[in-house]
Design goal:
The protein is α/β, with parallel strands linked by helices. The chain is built from ten helices and seven strands. The longest helix is centred in the last third of the chain and has 18 residues. It starts with 7 loop residues before the first strand and ends in a 5-residue tail after the last helix.
Length: 238
């Protein structure tokens, strides 16, 4: 993608495999790249060599590719930078230092703010693509009292988790995400009845945010919420 669109959100997109025709990609409703998710223009660049597996695992060798793609987006007119994988928060500082626009690589950046919105006894459930790789450094919570209020649950092993590791991945199975996320929330709430809000780490989960808000009866936050706040700060008015 080489065109320039003013007042755009620039999105760092992971590799998606050997697709015969990129125009056949059809993001699910609510996804970061769906044309109706935001009321402002979106442009994107693929981060060379960044696959779900090595981004989730935290390969430090990917940092130059993230920086290069972010700089290309700014050259094309991006007013802010985000990502299609919450685990790319590992590259938040490096990307932010490399461009002159706001950078919000992951919804996990919201976590300290959300904790302060709730009573001290309340907990937040962080729903992630893979809890085995959602390490402490990603949460960025130095206060042990705040960390104790965060519970983490993942959908590893589920159908969507397996699909995303394929090359190329199949179209997003929203029903599978609904089932896996709902089951995870049920488990977490059973163990932690103090949960008062849900934060989606995974950038695919906004596709089921409306459904989860309705069925769980709790506030749900995700990367699209953070992107809207950030674009509003740049002066965008849809």
């Amino acid at each position: 993608m080489t065109s320039q669109t003013p007042y755009s959100l620039g999105i760092l997109h992971l590799e998606r495999g050997l697709l015969p025709d990129a125009t056949r990609l059809k993001p699910a409703s609510g996804a970061m790249l769906h044309p109706e998710t935001f009321d402002f223009p979106v442009i994107w660049e693929t981060v060379a060599g960044a696959w779900v597996e090595n981004v989730v695992r935290g390969d430090p060798a990917l940092e130059p590719a993230f920086i290069a793609a972010a700089r290309r987006l700014v050259e094309r007119g991006a007013m802010a930078i985000s990502s299609t994988c919450g685990f790319s928060i590992r590259h938040q500082s490096a990307v932010a230092a490399s461009v002159n626009v706001p950078v919000v690589m992951s919804s996990l950046l919201l976590l300290p703010t959300l904790l302060r919105q709730l009573p001290g006894a309340a907990k937040i459930a962080v729903l992630t693509y893979d809890s085995t790789h959602c390490s402490e450094d990603l949460l960025q919570l130095d206060d042990p009292n705040e960390r104790a209020r965060v519970v983490i649950g993942g959908i590893e092993g589920g159908k969507f988790w397996r699909d995303e590791l394929k090359n190329p991945p199949p179209p997003t199975d929203v029903a599978a995400i609904e089932r896996d996320v709902s089951a995870c929330i049920t488990r977490l709430r059973g163990a932690h009845p103090q949960i008062a809000a849900i934060l989606f780490e995974c950038a695919a989960f906004p596709t089921v945010a409306t459904y989860i808000r309705r069925t769980a009866g709790l506030p749900v936050y995700d990367i699209t919420d953070l992107c809207r706040i950030t674009m509003a700060s740049t002066g965008w008015a849809g």
